[in-house]
Design goal:
The protein has about 160 residues and is an alpha+beta fold. The protein has four helices and three strands. Helix 1 (about 1-25) runs antiparallel to helix 2 and helix 3 runs antiparallel to helix 4. The protein starts with a helix and ends with a strand.
Length: about 160
């Protein structure tokens, strides 16, 4: 590939040198205009010469191979990114719920959040597991905060006791 590129560049440089010399030595007459047009065509031919012998089939195969290599390289990275994104979302939502619980006076709160990737490409919490010894009224208040603040339905909220 580099040899082809080297040959193409040398061809362009050679054509440029020849046309420059021919234009310098030609007399300033009508013939110089014709020589300039011929030199222009020569430069165009030198520029387009690689297109003539270009192996489009080989190029297509190499391009497809490179696309597959790029996909093979990025797939594991995308999987790691998705795992990290879901972990960050789960951690932030758990921290939010823990802070709301602390605000309500619940001191023994343990929160686990499960996030799910939706069709829009974003992670959303879909399940919350809360463990506490708090009474029903505090649990109801926290459930309301979770539903109102995070949009997690009460059906997706599971409660457990710290003794379990």
């Amino acid at each position: 590939m580099t040899e082809v590129l080297r040959g193409w560049i040398l061809g362009i440089v050679g054509a440029a040198v020849v046309t420059a010399v021919v234009l310098v030595v030609s007399p300033d007459t009508r013939a110089k205009k014709v020589v300039a047009v011929v030199c222009g065509f020569m430069m165009i031919i030198a520029l387009l010469r690689p297109v003539e012998g270009f192996d489009y089939g080989g190029f297509k195969l190499n391009f497809a191979r490179l696309q597959q290599q790029a996909q093979d390289f990025t797939e594991p990275l995308n999987a790691v990114n998705e795992n990290l994104t879901s972990a960050i979302i789960e951690e932030r939502y758990a921290a939010y719920i823990s802070d709301k619980g602390a605000t309500l006076g619940i001191s023994d709160l343990a929160v686990t959040v499960e996030a799910e990737l939706y069709v829009d490409g974003f992670w959303y919490p879909n399940r919350v597991f809360v463990t506490t010894e708090a009474d029903k009224s505090l649990r109801d208040k926290l459930a309301y905060e979770i539903e109102a603040g995070l949009g997690i339905a009460s059906e997706e909220l599971s409660w457990g006791d710290t003794n379990d």
